[in-house]
Every structure is written in C-alpha cells, then in structure tokens.
C-alpha cells in the first residue's frame, strides 16, 4: 500500500482527496499545464529529428487559503512538515511501483532490470514530461493530491531524488525546520531563511554521498503575521553556521565535502502567502 493510500484510509492528516486518473482538478488552473506541456513536447519531438529532451520531474504546488494542491509527474517528491511530522504528499513514479508496472505492461511495454528496474530497460521513472521516445509507456499525466491546510503546517519541501536517496522524509523536514528557526533567530528574513535551509539540505545530501542531481525548494508556510527582521549577517555566513550546527546529523564516515558558492545556485521566490527557496547542484 502506498503512503498516500495509507493516509487516505487513516484520515489522520485530513487528506481531502487524491486524484489518480485525471490530471485536471476543477478550478485549479495550474494543473492542466502538465498535459499541455506533454502534448507540446510530443509535437515538437515528432517534428524534430533530434532525440528526446530531458525529463521533467518536479512536483508543482499551488497554494490556496484552505487547501494545498500538489501535482507530481516523475520521482521528485513533495513533503509537508506539520507539527514537526513529515507527511509525504506524492508517491514517486518509479518503474518498480506495482501500479505503474501494471499500467506500463497494459500499454504493451515492459519493465526490465538493467542497472536497476527501468521502463523498457531505459528509464527508471515511469512518468515524465520529456522522454517522448518512450510514449505511451512513459506518460506526462500527473497525480494530484489535495490536502486541507491547518494552522500547524510549517513548511513544504520539494526536492529531487538526489536528496531523497540519502535523507529520509523526516530527516529532511527536521533539518529544514531547524534551519528556518535558527536563521530567523539570527536575524535572517523569511526569504533568506528559506534560501539558507534549501542550501543546507543540498550540501547535506552531497556530504552524505548523493551521486545524483540535487534540487531543493523550501516553502515557509508559517504565519505571515510574524514581523520581518532585517538580516545583518551575510546569508553565506549563516549558511555555514547552519552547516556546522547540522554536522552531527551526518552518518558516521560521511564525506565532509562542501559545495562551493560557484557550484551551488540559489533562487528565492516570494509572495505574500509563502516564501520559497530553490537551490540546485548539478552532478
């Protein structure tokens, strides 16, 4: 049973619904873009002699006052931190997932073991906006989760599998929450704190030996009523402090590698409702 199915049955996290068959939710304008991108990509692929483009695997959040909508297509993951507890909002679209295996085989494809379980022995993910050469086995149709918002929702964490390969949901959420809190205590704005948390998570994944691309987005869902403070400490210095504070979380024997500022990129997206930060490290 998947993690989302478990949540649906227990009802312990007020999961409103999980739409598995249709990529479109009424009045949710952001979701059809997945199907549109998939169709446009397929047409562009058909009219070009070039090979298939890179896959897209990022879950997309759309924040509403009382509900949170998360659409996922690929093996990036969205995890909500609520009262300190990590709640997975997506199921990775891996070729080894039983329901995805059944879907691929029903479409006439095969799941083969070639350096891991892969669709047609090629791709480890079973859904992606790209990889048009593997249609109709690899589809661009997302799974959509709708979650009722609560006052104790603290942060939303979106990340590629480069993070989840080496950190558990709870480890990542606990580290992000701690970084947000400590950065704010040391004078960082909410935007800077989110950027610092995302950078620390990226570096932690590298320190733990991640060998895949690492992209992290931290969205602060805490109360917007808290007044902003002006950061008087450079973000880079705060990030280094956070890394020192989190060093004890690394497993014994983990590499002590650091990501230099010229190989780690950060981008902060802010709105009145949420503060996001994305940081990625290419492999």
Automatic annotation (TrEMBL):
This is PPM-type phosphatase domain-containing protein. PROSITE patterns: PPM_2 (PS51746). Residues 235-250, 261-277 have a biased composition (Low complexity). It holds the Pfam family PP2C. Gene3D superfamilies: PPM-type phosphatase domain. It comes from the Eukaryota. GO terms for molecular function: protein serine/threonine phosphatase activity. The lineage of its organism: Eukaryota, Viridiplantae, Chlorophyta, core chlorophytes, Trebouxiophyceae. InterPro entries: PP2C, PPM-type-like_dom_sf, PPM-type_phosphatase-like_dom. It comes from [Myrmecia] bisecta. PANTHER family: PROTEIN PHOSPHATASE. Residues 1-25, 44-67, 228-283 are annotated as: Disordered. Residues 1-221 form the PPM-type phosphatase domain.
């Amino acid at each position: 049973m998947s993690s989302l199915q478990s949540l649906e049955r227990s009802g312990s996290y007020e999961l409103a619904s999980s739409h598995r068959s249709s990529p479109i939710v009424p009045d949710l304008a952001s979701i059809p873009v997945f199907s549109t991108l998939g169709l446009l990509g397929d047409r562009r692929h058909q009219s070009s002699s070039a090979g298939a483009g890179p896959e897209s695997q990022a879950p997309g959040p759309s924040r509403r006052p009382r509900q949170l909508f998360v659409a996922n297509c690929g093996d990036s993951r969205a995890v909500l931190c609520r009262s300190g507890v990590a709640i997975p909002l997506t199921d990775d679209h891996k070729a080894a997932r039983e329901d995805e295996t059944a879907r691929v085989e029903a479409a006439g494809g095969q799941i083969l073991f070639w350096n891991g379980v892969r669709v047609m022995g090629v791709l480890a993910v079973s859904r992606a906006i790209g990889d048009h050469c593997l249609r109709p086995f690899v589809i661009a149709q997302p799974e959509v989760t709708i979650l009722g918002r609560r006052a104790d929702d603290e942060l939303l964490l979106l990340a590629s599998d480069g993070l989840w390969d080496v950190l558990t949901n709870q480890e990542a959420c606990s580290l992000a929450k701690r970084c947000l809190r400590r950065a704010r205590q040391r004078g960082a704005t909410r935007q800077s704190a989110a950027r610092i948390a995302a950078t620390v998570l990226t570096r932690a994944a590298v320190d733990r030996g991640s060998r895949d691309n690492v992209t992290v987005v931290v969205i602060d869902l805490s109360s917007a009523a808290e007044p902003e403070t002006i950061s008087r400490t450079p973000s880079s210095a705060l990030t280094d402090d956070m890394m020192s504070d989190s060093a004890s979380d690394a497993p014994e024997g983990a590499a002590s590698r650091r990501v230099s500022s010229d190989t780690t990129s950060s981008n902060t997206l802010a709105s009145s409702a949420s503060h996001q930060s994305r940081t990625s490290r290419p492999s």
